[in-house]
């Protein structure tokens, strides 16, 4: 009795954390919920596994079934509950319909979640340099994290921190004066600035005079020369204008386009502040450093100023962090950048701490691995646009070769959305930290666990709803969804909030990806076996309800990942 009493005497909120929906199994029918007996007996942690198993067994025998719970059994250290089928069906479908895009987010798991102000810095390409695959990963991962945080009710600010300052602009300014064309700059700024940059770098290796001119140009920029600044400003404005158009194709926006240039003066203030605290030290080479070692023996230093007095990336990052704290008063700031930057961020956060900013604890670097072997038909990836065009043209070819492709008004747009889904799912399937070998063929497999499969499932479910309209939906009897295929789907829908919760804890998209792939597989099986056509109205209605719920949750999950669901393909 003590143990039966223990279950009932627990406050509901501690039970919620101990109960979870049972993952669907291909091999056998499973129960709906399980209660971890270990977590109930947390306070008696010296219990052996056998004791726990024994407790589970005894509990299962003690607890009585009722109108809600139709079966209770003991699993390995768990109690398994089976819920009255009609009740389960009604509750899940009603919840999905009522909560719509908020399904899973209104769960008790999130009930005590305080609403925070969160800044996410992601994408961050350099003007006139290649937009490489690392920037692409940062862009889609950052967008996912921002989407997830926003869905959970936080106030999110999305920042793109552009590389728009530094010696490269000395070269670029000089290069443009030598080889630039106004009309090319207007027509295709990113491409033209890149070409100019490549050409001027070539010249500079042979001609010391070009290097000298470049240094002079950058020096003029640093001093605030109006002519030099006006040219720089045009490079920046035109580049950002073009980037905005490209991000739009990805379905991504930013609240702020910030840049290193913005912190060129503020970083001088940071240096003065570091100096006033006695934290600056000069090296033999004349560079100015801050000691960030735990031991104070200069075993780890961060350079904050070159010997010629110019500021560095790290100094500007410090200034940016302090400025953002003032401007947004964030609770958390997340930087999405590749794992090669790990040490850089550790040093920046450490320096903020040394400067007395306790909020440095709430700054976080989300690192990701390297993608190898991503090439387009134009060769190495130079621009984000190359990737998007490649995705679009490969997907169009794919769609042309598939017999079931529907005639549609805008095949290019659909191809791009499906292709992007494929790219994103390929990227999000593993842990963000893992490196992976890129393969276009694998991205676009029509069979198997790909983004194409998710989009295809979504489109099929859309056309099912379209074909049978909403005529059936009023007529709906929960008793008509007893088949194992329906039950598996309902059980899987039950787990969505837990998957969102896990993703919110570790910021890894793979949990949502594998959930949606399983949902799509379950839907494919159900689509084959649970006919809507030629079924009695109430059966057809019930099945349509079920498929509509699947489509709704599928769309919710895809949107969180940064994918735009398509209704025809």
UniProtKB/TrEMBL annotation:
Pfam families recorded: DALR_1, tRNA-synt_1d
Enzyme Commission designation: 6.1.1.19
MF terms (GO), sorted A to Z: arginine-tRNA ligase activity; ATP binding
GO cellular component term, pick one: mitochondrial membrane
UniProt KW Nucleus keyword: no
Span of the signal peptide: none
Protein localization: Mitochondrion membrane
Predominant subcellular localization, coarse grouping: mitochondrion
Similarity comment: Belongs to the class-I aminoacyl-tRNA synthetase family.
Protein's name according to its UniProt entry: Probable arginine--tRNA ligase, mitochondrial
Organism listed in the record: Rattus norvegicus (Rat)
Phylogenetic placement of the source organism: Eukaryota, Metazoa, Chordata, Craniata, Vertebrata
Gene from which this protein is expressed: Rars2
């Amino acid at each position: 009795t003590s143990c039966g009493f223990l279950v009932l005497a627990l406050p509901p909120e501690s039970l919620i954390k101990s109960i979870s929906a049972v993952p669907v199994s291909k091999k056998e029918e499973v129960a709906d919920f399980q209660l971890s007996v270990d977590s109930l007996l947390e306070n008696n942690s010296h219990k052996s596994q056998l004791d726990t198993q024994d407790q589970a067994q005894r509990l299962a025998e003690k607890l009585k079934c009722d109108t809600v719970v139709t079966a209770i059994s003991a699993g390995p250290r768990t109690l398994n509950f089976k819920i009255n089928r009609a009740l389960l069906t009604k509750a899940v479908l009603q919840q999905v319909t009522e909560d719509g895009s908020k399904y899973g987010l209104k769960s008790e798991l999130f009930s005590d979640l305080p609403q925070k102000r969160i800044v996410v810095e992601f994408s961050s390409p350099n003007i006139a340099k290649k937009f490489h695959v690392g920037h692409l990963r940062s862009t889609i991962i950052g967008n996912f994290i921002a989407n997830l945080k926003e869905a959970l009710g936080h106030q999110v600010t999305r920042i793109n921190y552009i590389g728009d300052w530094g010696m490269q602009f000395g070269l670029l300014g000089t290069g443009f004066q030598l080889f630039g064309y106004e009309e090319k700059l207007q027509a295709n700024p990113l491409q033209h600035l890149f070409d100019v940059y490549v050409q001027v770098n070539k010249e500079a290796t042979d001609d010391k005079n070009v290097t000298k001119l470049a240094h002079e140009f950058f020096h003029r920029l640093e001093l605030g020369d109006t002519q030099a600044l006006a040219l720089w400003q045009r490079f920046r404005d035109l580049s950002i204008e073009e980037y905005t158009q490209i991000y739009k194709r990805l379905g991504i926006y930013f609240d702020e386009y910030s840049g290193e240039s913005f912190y060129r003066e503020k970083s001088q203030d940071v240096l003065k502040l570091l100096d006033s605290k006695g934290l600056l030290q000069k090296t033999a080479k004349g560079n100015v450093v801050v000691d960030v070692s735990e031991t104070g023996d200069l075993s780890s230093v961060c350079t904050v100023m070159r010997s010629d007095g110019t500021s560095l990336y790290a100094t500007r990052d410090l200034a940016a962090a302090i400025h953002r704290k003032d401007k947004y008063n964030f609770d958390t700031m997340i930087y999405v950048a590749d794992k090669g930057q790990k040490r850089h961020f550790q040093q920046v956060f450490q320096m903020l701490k040394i400067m007395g900013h306790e909020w440095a604890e709430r700054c976080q670097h989300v690192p990701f691995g390297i993608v190898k072997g991503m090439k387009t038909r134009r060769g190495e990836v130079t621009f984000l646009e190359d990737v998007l065009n490649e995705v679009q043209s490969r997907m169009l070819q794919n769609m042309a070769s598939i017999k079931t492709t529907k005639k549609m008004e805008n095949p290019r747009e659909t191809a791009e959305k499906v292709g992007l889904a494929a790219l994103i799912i390929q990227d999000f399937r593993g842990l963000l930290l893992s490196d992976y070998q890129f393969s276009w063929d694998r991205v676009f497999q029509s069979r198997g666990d790909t983004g194409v499969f998710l989009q295809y499932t979504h489109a099929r479910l859309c056309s099912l709803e379209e074909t049978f309209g909403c005529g059936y939906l009023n007529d709906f009897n929960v008793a008509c969804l007893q088949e194992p295929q329906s039950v598996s789907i309902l059980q899987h829908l039950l787990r969505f909030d837990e998957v969102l919760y896990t993703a919110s804890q570790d910021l890894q998209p793979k949990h949502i990806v594998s959930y949606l792939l399983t949902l799509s597989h379950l839907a494919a099986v159900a689509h084959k076996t649970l006919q809507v056509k030629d079924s009695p109205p109430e059966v057809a209605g019930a099945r349509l309800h079920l498929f509509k719920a699947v489509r709704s949750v599928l769309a919710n999950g895809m949107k969180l990942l940064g994918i735009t669901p398509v209704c025809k393909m």
